[in-house]
Specification:
The chain has 113 residues and is mostly helical. It is built from 4 helices and no strands.
Length: 113
């Protein structure tokens, strides 16, 4: 449909890929500046947290990941303030509660039939 409107699909795919790669590189640079060190495994500390956010939000849902990130961020900060020892398991407990309530996540991607 987009090709029928006059857009060149190959060029559009290339542009989207280049933009995504540039944003990933910018994110890596910003994370390296925040950590004040650059190593080959500098993203491994937050990998579990990112996994939890994606599972809570629903696989493939950008809106769900946004809501999941807000929930995880607020919960971990409040729990770290109120009960620091409980903050270690609070995000996993939130993920378990959400998956028990809605196994597909908060905002699952609905496929048209």
């Amino acid at each position: 449909m987009v090709e029928a409107l006059g857009y060149r699909i190959r060029r559009l795919f290339l542009l989207v890929f280049m933009t995504g790669s540039a944003l990933a590189g910018l994110g890596g640079v910003m994370w390296g500046l925040y950590q004040e060190t650059i190593t080959s495994h500098m993203g491994s500390e937050i990998m579990v947290l990112v996994f939890v956010v994606v599972i809570i939000g629903g696989l493939g849902s950008v809106e769900g990941c946004f809501i999941g990130a807000l929930l995880v961020g607020l919960l971990s900060n409040y729990m770290a303030f109120l009960a620091p020892k409980a903050a270690l398991v609070s995000t996993i407990a939130l993920m378990v509660c959400v998956l028990m309530w809605r196994p597909q996540g908060l905002y699952p991607v609905v496929k048209a039939k």
